[in-house]
Amino acid sequence: MKRVLILGTGGTIASKKHTSGLRPELEIDELIKLINIPEGICSIEGFTVMNIDSTNMTPDKWFIIANHIKDNYQGFDGFVITHGTDTMAYTAAALTYIFHNLNKPVIITGSQYPITEFYTDGIQNLTDAVYFAMENISGVFICFDGNLIAGTRATKIRTKSYDAFVSVNFPVVANIKHNKVIYDTRVKEQFLKKEKNDPLFIRTKYNDRIIVLKLIPGMHTDIFDFVKKHYEGVIIESFGLGGIPDTEQGIAMKINELIEAGIIVVITTQCMEEGVEYGVYEVGSLLPRDKIIIAGDFNIETLVAKTMIAMGNYNTFEEIKEYIETPYTYMPA
After folding, report:
1. CATH number of 210-325
2. Is the predicted pLDDT of residue 333 greater than 70, yes or no?
3. Are 258 and 265 contacting, i.e. CB atoms less than 8 angstroms apart?
4. 125-173 per-position pLDDT tens digit
5. 207-228 exposure pattern, b = at least 16 Cβ within 10 A, e = fewer
6. 12 tagged catalytic
7. What is the pLDDT of residue 88?
């Protein structure tokens, strides 16, 4: 019989109504009682790691969660984390890169409505997550509305609907219906448990001195002087395939100043799908390719987490660039 550990971190799924709004306060035992799984299928244990609104999630809390999984890694076959939806995709991406040699499923789930409400999606999401945690897979995933999404590919696109998350530039790994898991055969193999079971290792360092800048028409350039003074890395959401304005605004020149100052510059796109590509347009070729990082088709949540981990664990630009530009998940040919 499989053993599953559920870690509670708060979020809407554990919230109750108060005069000032929803507040996380349910302990994990109260959530476990509502799971719809027949006796004898698996053994479920759990404890509350923290009870916060996910708006208050921070990088140091990612490592608290990771260490709880490491401490209990040998005793369980799979793990479920209950989490608020607003920063769930950041946590999923971060844990993917924090863990090294992870060879068990870590499933993150939550809900759009509190689990004690009549119309909640929390009971189904939590039940589905436990079923996924019993599967013969490895990695960090988000389970939501019957879908299993790779932790580095999830983005929240809806604030109230049950289907809050989508998988960006990558297939949904699996879905579950009537407790039966059905995989996308194109990508299943890369998530199967490995025969070699090396010890789980946790990267313990990160650098959160980064900022995300979204370019807008007519953007003032003094923001780049501020970035150069106060930050060590910047993720720039460019236009389209990677367009950087080269008019009298001088944005391209300012970004080059950041590069010369040793700031890590990551170029991505404001478009959700299909990614950024260097050099297709002249306005996308204004920066030195060997001195910037091209994000490819990564979503912003993954880029934020991956850049923090890379800058905390590698010393040279070349190492950081290689780490960030290398996909964790890959599309089959």
Report:
1. 3.40.50.40
2. no
3. yes
4. 999 999 999 999 999 999 999 999 999 999 999 999 999 999 999 999 9
5. bbebbebebeeeeeeeebeebb
6. yes
7. 98
How confident is the model at residue 286, as a pLDDT? Answer: 77
pLDDT tens-place string over residues 41-96: 999 999 999 999 999 999 999 999 999 999 999 999 999 999 999 999 999 999 99
Q: Where are the beta strands (DSSP E) in the chain?
A: 2-10, 15-18, 21-24, 42-52, 78-82, 99-100, 105-109, 139-144, 147-150, 154-156, 165-167, 174-177, 180-183, 201-202, 210-214, 233-238, 264-269, 293-294
pTM of the model: 0.95
Q: Amino acid letter at 183?
A: Y
CB 113 within 8 A of CB 122: yes
What's the topology of domain 2-202?
A: Rossmann fold (3.40.50)
Residue in 12, 82, 91, 307 annotated catalytic: 12
Q: What is the token pair recorded at 128?
A: 């589905």
Ranges of CATH 3.40.50.40 domains, the chain: 210-325
Give the pLDDT of residue 249: 67
Can you list the pairs that 244-248 forms with residues at least 24 positions away whose Cβ atoms lie under 8 Å?
Answer: 244/215, 244/283, 244/284, 244/286, 244/287, 245/215, 245/219, 245/283, 246/282, 246/283, 246/286
